[in-house]
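Hey, resending since the last one bounced:
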Amino acid sequence: MFVKVITPDQEVFEGEVSQAKFPGTSGEFEVLNNHAALISTLNKGKMMLNTASEGQKEYMIEGGVVEILDNQISVLIEGLAS
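The structure tokens again:
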């Protein structure tokens, strides 16, 4: 799956992943290859991306929105938490 994560100020991540976990408004959820189409709001929390080249990457996010469509994941976040 191809993932692009951006904030209003910068691109945080762009690349291929085998798994992604998000802090959804209704609870944490996981996305694997060929996931059904989905749009969800995100809460403040931990976003995890499992990449082949860099292993597992974790980001603390301030909330946002994720769209999943045809193995493409677009994540628009308010910012990274400190």
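The chain has no helices and nine strands.

Sorry for the duplicate.
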